[in-house]
Amino acid sequence: MCGIHELTEKDLQPLSYTPAYLDKIKGMRFFDPHVHMTSRTTDDYQAMADAGIVALIEPAFWLGQPRTGVDTFRDYFNSLLGWERFRASQFGIKHYCTIGLNSKEANNEKLAEAVMEILPQFIYKEGVVGVGEIGFDDQTALEEKYYRAQLELAKEAGLPVQIHTPHRDKKKGTQRSMDIAIEHGLPPHMVIVDHNNEETVKEVLDRGFWAAFTIYPFTKMGNERMVAVVKQYGSERIMVNSAADWGISDPLAVPKTAALMHESGIDLNDIHSVTYMNAVKAFAQSGQINESDFELAGNIDQSERFNGSTVLRGGQQPRINKNTTIIR
Amino acid sequence: MAEYVYDQQKMSNGLEAIIASNSSNTAREWLQQRLQKAASIPQFNQTFTAIPRFTGKNIISVTSEQAAVLQQDVPGFFVHGWTLDRLVRVWWLLQLNISTKTIYIDTVEQLFNAAEMNELAALYSALPLLAFPEAWKLRTAEGIRSNIGIVQEAIMLHNPYPAKYLDEPAWNQLVMKAIFTDKPLHRISGLDERRNIALAAILTDFAHERWAAGRKVDPMQWRLLTPFINNENLPDITRVWHSADQTEKAAAALVCAGSDYLPAQQLLASNLTLATEIQDGALTWDVIATKLSQ
Ligand SMILES: [Zn+2]
């Protein structure tokens, strides 16, 4: 039989070598509130767990090319609630998701209508912590129509909203996104505005919204810039994510940024806020996050784990050492 | 055409008693209130999804009297170790109207199609209780292909539906998948009853593959060969018999003890200690299962 063998606990052993930056953040716990694990490998989960990521949120996104029917949306949403959540759990990582119709695909009206019809089936599921990621890409009329419709859904369900802000004409797109959310009666504390930069952060914070930053090489933020932002604006209502997906991106962006912040002399409490606590607070407004669910996984020191703590049981074998050329 | 193949009212009451002794007043009131609306399919579905928010997910405790009621009605049906939300979801499925077969089947199928992991586990756990049991064979075979541990376990372990309804290839697929994913084989309902010669052949092939790769074979797997020991597979059992691993050797002894094939009986007779242990009931497959789970 080929295909994916179910992971067993013997696959969960720590790496036998430690990248240098991990020393700087030893014992810290991280929450990546925006990462597209569907497009990542299981090795990434392993590395994320080793770096202290205890929980993450996977926003529903597009696949890089348009989907042609509502059934593939249904299967995608199911995979966020099923296989991805299970795969993460195999590494002690708590996987949540946000569910929504992304802005790019809002432009196919016929399909968008069909997706809107199935959304209520999914947003009430366990572990769905928000409607997302929604908002503007090209800022078309159809994007606005489905953004508004989904804000209404979120309001009715009492869920936070995770907003994707556009690459082009970002400042205006961000302002419009916030204006429309207010118009639909969503209080700013229920809205997480994503992909901020130096140009947008001030207004987002001043208006009382959550400001999320994506550490994504070349196109979004670098983490040196992120350090400067936290030095300037502090840690209140700011959060860091990787938005890692099928592009050139880094699922370890959150722990790496924490290490850099630590190196740059930012206070540990502030680091904790922007790489863990603020995201928990914002999305726990869904009633779907229970910190105690991931406390156990996060509290466990890798070396302790190795010597047989409560999480791993019998049949343990050393995890594959990636530095050897021999594969068993 | 069979609707329920057991006393549905009795089962529903039996489950309700367990729910009553494991849930809060608020949860029970909410369920009562939802019952009034159960006739509407969207409301029925929404309740099914929302159950954990109102019941919580504590592991239930079941008295032996409560368990006996369920067993009398559906032999092999087992709720020990379940969380309350799973139990309530299974009970909730029994409240679905069965007067129109097509609507009933379509509703349950749609629940499967939009289910997250815990919902899937509840739905598959409910298989022995669903109406029109013949209708769920394909769905079960599909579920066996799942890669998600709790979903696989809901189908494979302590679930009497597969042994009763799956055809032989699907049943064999279930057993092989359980072996591939390190499940405790002795907890598969009907494991001995549904032993078959095709499965025995698949298993010896699989063992050869494992051995060639320098890997071990689950000793419990040999139990499935017991009625089919012949001159072709005796060398495999003999190899296991000569294993340095005592559990493996004990498994080979049990296979020989259960076999009518003379050379197998002679092999067992060559070790008086093991033969006596088996005769006295000190060595059984349950003993092996306990050793393996340690
Ligand atoms: Zn994204």
Could you name the key traits of this structure?
heterodimer; A: 328 residues; alpha/beta; TIM Barrel; eight-stranded parallel sheet; 13 helices; 8 strands; 42% helix; globular; B: 294 residues; mainly alpha; elongated; binds zinc ion; Metal_Hydrolase (chain A); TatD-like (chain A); Hydrolase TatD (chain A)
Structure description:
The complex is a heterodimer of chains A (328) and B (294). Chain A has 328 residues and is an alpha/beta fold. Chain A has helices at residues 20-24, 42-50, 70-81, 83-89, 109-123, 141-157, 170-183, 201-206, 223-233, 253-263, 268-284, 291-299, 302-306; strands spanning 30-32, 53-59, 94-99, 128-135, 161-164, 191-193, 210-214, 238-241. Chain A has an 8-stranded parallel sheet with strand order 1-2-3-4-5-6-7-8, sandwiched between helices. In chain A, α3 packs parallel to α5 (109-123) and α9 packs across α10. The radius of gyration of chain A is 20 Å and the shape is globular. The model of chain A is unreliable at 298-320 (pLDDT under 50). With 294 residues, chain B is mainly α. Chain B has 17 helices and no strands. Chain B has helices spanning 8-20, 25-35, 41-55, 64-73, 84-93, 101-113, 117-125, 137-144, 149-156, 160-165, 168-180, 197-212, 234-241, 246-257, 262-269, 272-279, 285-292. The A-B interface holds A 1, 3-6, 8, 74, 78, 81-83, 85-86, 118, 121-122, 124-127, 287, 314 and B 45-46, 49-50, 52-53, 113-120, 147-152, 176, 180-182, 294. The site of zinc ion has 6 residues of chain A, from loops.
